[in-house]
């Protein structure tokens, strides 16, 4: 009974974690050497490190997306924002002799500005989030192309190279950056009341208003944060390939990010989000991708597998399915009732 | 069981016969063994307070909810509507209070939706327009049927809804609070229409909370209370005070004046003062003052303006005239957060929509108001939170396995206590409670009344709206009686009794 | 007096006329009917997809799977014709059925499990693209006398222009779409659902059934678009039509349909897609402008129409209350 209580209570936390472990184990049994990590020249190498390395941009975007989803919103424009910020990074590096940190600040500022645009449309003009962010999703790549003048702008900068592919304390630098931002976000969200307010506004905007929490500024800052995260992700992706590709940088990343947030147990209807589990969600997606690559299966299976997993997760999360299942196991339902009604 | 008062010449079988109907929602009996009969050409008022079962009865009748037991006979045939569309085809049409039409479609499209006439398999809009005009003429509306519905006022939309209900060969028409948004001319127009339909032999169920209207249009009255049918009466033979006592479940005769001490503290300075505060189409301007340690009750039937008064006083709805003062502050231009900071608190009537944040834990729900008034940058430390919450759980006897349980999983009574605790930890000077005991079990009910009394002794000012007169009489120092969005009377001290309140409401 | 709900489509028409007029005024070549008929042919697959999307958006939903569906149906058709040796007519029939089937499945999940259309069709988008890859990794030509014959159908018009089979098929599907939307009970149910789904249910609209039909219809139209696209390009490629869902949504919105549902016209969508085509053609005629201006212009138009719709909604509400 005690054990069941534990499982029941931590069901939401355990499900993504167990899925991740399971996927890693299955892959390891199919692909020999998957778990192997070698230490060369002070750097760690191996599939697992590679997963972290590749998952970083998605994780950053998913972090911002989670905060937006908590407010009952969605940000479709992150892929386009990545392209814009990558373009800004590349063009400023090539065309100016500004110090690299100013270039990075400009790129991050551009991301935040894009987020502000979305935030204003959503919270001042009261436009549905899907609709509001769609505008930048469509126009954003055009803006990025305009900045790069339609070229793939390549650049060279030692600092940016380090951000893209460098190592620090055995791990890729970009992984450290992501860990830093994730921890900072978790601290700001949980050690101030910001997280509570955002979740409260997303879950019940009317009740929140009645206790004096005004939604407008909170919602706007969520979009600004999402734009900032996408900007950082854009810098890393540009640094990775040492160039800005306005057409393909961050393509469909918004969908992976949304998927990761949903895998972590958040509802698109707003409210509770789980930042660390969102990172686990990203790792699940990235592990699947890498696993399919290393196991020798054709890449295209990736999409079918992803689609199947989304559908399975959605169907499991659907209250309707729970109703059906509880109809099938009426005894369990009784148990539950007994424990909730005093 | 049926208390149906047989008219003198009832020889024909009833148009609608409801026999022993029951319906429950997860343990709550919403309707138990309700029986009634309606003749053709009869206008029947269906009355009862909130939660009496009126809307459940209508929704079971029209197939929105499946029933648990009982029979419904229309014209002698047992019917079982699968959904609202099916009910319409069977001959039962309903017009709801909140206009249930499609705002983005034209009047014509709304009137003919699902009943369009076709030519060669395609809808003929020419025929539809002719039909729409005929239907509109029937309810006395002369408007352009091609315009979008939401460009018209709510009153016109309501009449369009009635026109639509008549379009489907209805035998029974259910009008669920259709007059709430109509002015007196429009009401007269509606009543003329009802009389005409009555003459044509239609049976009409009329739900309203305006007693004047009940007496001016209906033939008979069915009163529901707590899901049971209290009785059916001829309108002409039932006095207003008897009707009100049936509705609230108390008869004037059996009410002895209560022995409660209503000692009035008139001398102290007003804590909350409402000066000529009102809002158009919402609440008529009124004055009210509450001193520290005062409990002021707000009584009145459903829709009388109880909730409106609470919302204006709190500031969640801004008045368009008058001034609200709390202590030395004028609240009229304050944000809610500022109002809370200077000592306001409000437990709303609709706990689920406006009170709890269901997904968040008991702890988070409880500290929400205090945290909001401090701002996000000044968090209450976890240990302080736990201390505050633990205290409140003890003090209010909240039954929860732990403080991190989502509040949505608690029973209604415990949710209400958490919301109450949410405000208590902000130490408000004035607390507004709208229906604090609605929908909670007896134990919690008792606890909450105890808490209200204690708060008053500690010097808090309280404004409590309730539909339960017994409760108000038990603790209020003064009772404001509301009717048709007016303050009709303010009872003081020894004058406060259920009898007196009932008389004021019925007068 | 002009009905306020027709304002957006009038604005669409105005934009269309202004853009086309600008082209005619500025470029000699634009005055030939050829430009117009080419617009019809080149944008046929987008218009067809957007017609299906119109129904989805009118009902308050969204369908992100259409682009992948186009690629999947094309690849499936090529596989059936080339590898299985089926007659193209037969293959097209099966491909359309497959499209309707998958659309129905998505509709069932949306209607019965009450999961947001956005995320269900997102899964569909991944799935169809993946299925397309599973059948075939590379571009394959579709060459069959029957397909050739279809491509060769051409009705010349005055000037140098003429209607291709593709353009005519699109126009037929457009007329069907308009009739279904405005002249059938199903069509009116779609509008009602998008206007207020709760009230629609109380008015007797079969909500679940209608939702399933909507996504089945969108499946049909995007499958049809896949067939047309395959005939148009003469080949099938699993990476075809990436991002067409966005173009289709943009066409619907620029065509004056309210993205939250309930208001709009299929014909507006046709204009919306044509406007995107004209912008592209103008940029080609200009020669000095770059291709990203298309995206910026489309984004700007999107913003304009969304704000216009919002303004109308707010204005109507204020007027009804006052």
Automatic annotation (TrEMBL), chain A:
A Pfam family: BPD_transp_2
Listed InterPro entries: ABC_transp_permease
Ranges that cross the membrane: 52-69, 76-94, 100-122, 129-147, 167-189, 217-237, 249-266, 273-293, 299-316
GO function terms (MF aspect): transmembrane transporter activity
A GO-annotated cellular component: plasma membrane
Keyword Membrane: yes
The keyword ATP-binding appears for this protein: no
Major localization listed first in the record, in broad terms: membrane
Membrane topology listed for this record: Multi-pass membrane protein
UniProtKB keywords: Cell membrane, Membrane, Transmembrane, Transmembrane helix
Protein origin, superkingdom: Bacteria
Protein's cellular compartments: Cell inner membrane
Listed PANTHER family: ABC TRANSPORTER PERMEASE PROTEIN YPHD-RELATED-RELATED, GALACTOFURANOSE TRANSPORTER PERMEASE PROTEIN YTFT
Family: Belongs to the binding-protein-dependent transport system permease family. AraH/RbsC subfamily.
Descriptive protein name: Sugar ABC transporter permease
UniProtKB/TrEMBL annotation, chain B:
Location, primary (coarse class): membrane
SUPFAM superfamilies in alphabetical order: P-loop containing nucleoside triphosphate hydrolases
Stored InterPro entries: AAA+_ATPase, ABC_carbohydrate_import_ATPase, ABC_transporter-like_ATP-bd, ABC_transporter-like_CS, P-loop_NTPase
Acyltransferase as UniProt keyword: no
Keyword Cell membrane (UniProt): yes
Domain of life: Bacteria
Subcellular locations according to the entry: Cell membrane
Pfam family, one: ABC_tran
Membrane topology qualifier: Peripheral membrane protein
GO cellular component, one term: plasma membrane
Gene Ontology MF terms in the entry: ATP binding; ATP hydrolysis activity
Keywords annotated in UniProt: ATP-binding, Cell membrane, Membrane, Nucleotide-binding, Repeat, Sugar transport, Translocase, Transport
PROSITE patterns: ABC_TRANSPORTER_1, ABC_TRANSPORTER_2
Domain ABC transporter, residue spans: 16-251, 259-504
Protein name per its UniProtKB record: Sugar ABC transporter ATP-binding protein
UniProtKB/TrEMBL annotation, chain C:
GO function terms (MF aspect): transmembrane transporter activity
Taxonomic superkingdom: Bacteria
Listed transmembrane segments: 7-25, 45-62, 69-86, 92-113, 120-142, 162-181, 214-233, 297-316
Keyword S-adenosyl-L-methionine: no
Annotated localization: Cell inner membrane
GO CC field: plasma membrane
Keywords: Cell membrane, Membrane, Transmembrane, Transmembrane helix
Membrane topology classification: Multi-pass membrane protein
Entry's family note: Belongs to the binding-protein-dependent transport system permease family. AraH/RbsC subfamily.
Protein's recorded name: Sugar ABC transporter permease
Organism annotation: Marinomonas profundimaris
């Amino acid at each position: 009974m005690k054990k069941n209580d534990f499982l029941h209570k931590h069901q939401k936390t355990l499900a993504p974690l167990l899925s991740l472990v399971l996927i890693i184990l299955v892959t390891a049994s199919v692909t020999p050497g998957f778990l192997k990590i070698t230490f060369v020249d002070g750097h760690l190498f191996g599939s697992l490190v590679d997963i972290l390395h590749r998952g970083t941009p998605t994780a950053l975007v998913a972090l911002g997306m989670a905060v937006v989803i908590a407010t009952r919103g969605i940000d479709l424009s992150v892929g386009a924002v990545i392209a814009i910020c990558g373009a800004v990074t590349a063009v400023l590096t090539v065309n100016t002799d500004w110090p690299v940190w100013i270039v990075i600040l400009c790129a991050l500022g551009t991301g935040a500005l894009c987020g502000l645009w979305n935030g204003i449309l959503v919270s001042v003009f009261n436009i549905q989030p899907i609709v509001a962010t769609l505008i930048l999703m469509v126009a954003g790549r055009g803006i990025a192309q305009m900045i790069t003048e339609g070229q793939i702008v390549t650049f060279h900068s030692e600092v940016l190279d380090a951000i893209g592919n460098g190592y620090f304390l055995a791990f890729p630098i970009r992984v450290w950056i992501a860990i830093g931002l994730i921890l900072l976000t978790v601290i700001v969200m949980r050690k101030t009341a910001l997280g509570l307010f955002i979740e409260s506004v997303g879950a019940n905007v009317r009740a929140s208003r009645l206790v004096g929490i005004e939604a407008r500024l909170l919602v706007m800052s969520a979009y600004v944060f999402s734009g900032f995260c996408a900007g950082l992700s854009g810098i890393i992706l540009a640094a990775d390939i040492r160039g800005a590709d306005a057409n393909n940088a961050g393509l469909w990343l918004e969908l992976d990010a949304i998927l990761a947030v949903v895998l972590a147990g958040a509802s698109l209807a707003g409210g509770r989000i789980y930042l660390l589990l969102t990172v686990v969600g990203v790792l699940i997606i990235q592990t699947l991708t890498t696993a399919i690559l290393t196991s020798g299966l054709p890449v295209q299976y990736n999409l079918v597998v992803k689609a199947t997993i989304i559908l399975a997760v959605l169907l499991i999360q659907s209250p309707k399915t729970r109703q059906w299942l509880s109809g099938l196991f009426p005894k369990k339902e009784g148990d539950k009732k007994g424990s909730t009604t005093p | 069981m049926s208390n149906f008062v047989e008219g003198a010449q009832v020889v024909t079988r009833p148009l609608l016969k409801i026999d022993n109907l029951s319906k429950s929602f997860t343990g709550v009996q919403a309707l138990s063994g309700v029986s009634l009969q309606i003749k053709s050409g009869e206008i029947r008022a269906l009355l009862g307070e909130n939660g009496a079962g009126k809307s459940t009865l209508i929704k079971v009748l029209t197939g929105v909810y499946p029933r648990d037991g009982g029979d419904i006979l229309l014209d002698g045939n047992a019917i079982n509507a699968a959904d609202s569309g099916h009910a319409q085809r069977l001959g039962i049409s309903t017009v709801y209070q909140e206009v249930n039409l499609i705002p983005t479609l034209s009047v014509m499209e709304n009137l003919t939706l699902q009943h369009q006439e076709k030519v060669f398999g395609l809808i003929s809009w020419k025929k539809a327009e002719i039909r729409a005009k005929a239907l509109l003429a029937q309810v006395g509306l002369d408007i352009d049927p091609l315009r979008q519905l939401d460009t018209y006022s709510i009153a016109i939309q309501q009449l369009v809804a009635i026109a639509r209900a008549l379009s489907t060969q209805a035998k029974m028409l259910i009008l669920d609070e259709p007059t709430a948004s109509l002015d007196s001319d429009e009401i007269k127009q509606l009543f003329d229409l009802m009389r005409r339909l009555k003459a044509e032999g239609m049976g009409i169920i009329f739900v309203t909370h305006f007693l004047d209207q009940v007496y001016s249009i209906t033939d008979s009255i069915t009163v529901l209370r707590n899901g049971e049918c209290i009785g059916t009466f001829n309108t002409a033979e039932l006095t207003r005070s008897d009707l009100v006592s049936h509705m609230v479940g108390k008869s004037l005769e059996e009410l002895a004046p209560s022995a409660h001490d209503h000692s009035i503290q008139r001398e102290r300075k007003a804590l909350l003062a409402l000066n000529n505060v009102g809002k158009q189409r919402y609440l008529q301007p009124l004055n009210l003052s509450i001193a520290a340690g005062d409990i002021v009750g707000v009584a009145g039937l459903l829709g009388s303006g109880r909730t409106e008064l609470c919302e204006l006083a709190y500031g969640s709805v801004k008045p368009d005239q008058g001034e609200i003062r709390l202590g030395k502050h004028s609240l009229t231009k304050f944000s809610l957060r500022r109002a809370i900071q200077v000592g306001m608190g409000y437990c709303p009537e609709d706990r689920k929509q406006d009170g709890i944040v269901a997904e968040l834990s008991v702890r988070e729900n409880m500290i929400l108001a205090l945290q909001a008034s401090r701002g996000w940058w000044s968090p209450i430390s976890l240990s302080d939170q736990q201390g505050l919450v633990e205290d409140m759980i003890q003090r209010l006897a909240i039954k929860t396995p732990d403080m991190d349980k989502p509040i949505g999983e608690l029973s209604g009574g415990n949710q209400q206590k958490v919301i109450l605790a949410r405000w208590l930890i902000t130490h408000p000077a004035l607390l507004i409670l709208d229906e604090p005991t609605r929908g909670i079990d007896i134990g919690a009910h008792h606890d909450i009344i105890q808490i209200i009394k204690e708060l008053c002794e500690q010097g808090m000012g309280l404004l409590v709206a309730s539909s339960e007169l017994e409760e108000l009489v038990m603790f209020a120092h003064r009772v404001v009686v509301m009717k048709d969005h007016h303050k009709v009377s303010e009872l003081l001290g020894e004058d406060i009794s259920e009898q007196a309140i009932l008389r004021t409401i019925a007068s | 007096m002009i009905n306020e709900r027709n304002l957006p489509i009038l604005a669409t028409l105005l934009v269309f006329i202004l853009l086309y007029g600008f082209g005619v005024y500025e470029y000699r070549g634009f005055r030939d009917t050829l430009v117009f008929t080419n617009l019809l042919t080149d944008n046929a697959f987008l218009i067809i997809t957007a017609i299906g999307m119109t129904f989805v958006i009118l009902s308050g939903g969204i369908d992100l799977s259409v682009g992948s569906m186009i690629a999947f149906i094309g690849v499936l058709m090529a596989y059936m014709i080339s590898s299985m040796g089926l007659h193209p007519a037969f293959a097209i029939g099966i491909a359309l059925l497959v499209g309707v089937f998958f659309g129905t499945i998505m509709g069932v999940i949306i209607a019965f499990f009450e999961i947001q259309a956005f995320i269900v069709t997102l899964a569909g988008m991944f799935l169809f693209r993946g299925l397309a890859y599973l059948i075939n990794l590379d571009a394959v030509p579709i060459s069959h006398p029957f397909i050739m014959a279809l491509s060769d159908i051409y009705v010349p018009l005055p000037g140098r222009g003429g209607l291709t089979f593709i353009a005519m098929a699109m126009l037929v599907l457009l007329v069907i779409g308009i009739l279904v939307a405005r002249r059938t009970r199903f069509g009116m149910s779609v509008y009602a659902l998008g206007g207020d789904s709760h009230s629609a249910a109380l008015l007797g609209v079969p909500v679940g059934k209608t939702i399933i039909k909507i996504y089945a219809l969108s499946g049909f139209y995007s499958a049809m678009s896949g067939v047309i696209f395959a005939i148009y390009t003469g080949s099938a490629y699993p990476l075809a039509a990436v991002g067409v869902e966005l173009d289709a949504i943009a066409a619907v919105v620029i065509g004056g349909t309210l993205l939250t549902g309930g208001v709009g016209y299929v014909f507006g969508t046709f204009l919306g897609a044509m406007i995107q085509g004209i912008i592209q053609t103008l940029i080609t005629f200009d020669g000095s402008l770059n291709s990203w201006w298309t995206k910026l212009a489309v984004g700007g138009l999107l913003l304009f129409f969304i704000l216009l719709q919002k303004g109308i909604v707010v204005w109507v509400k204020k007027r009804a209350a006052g």
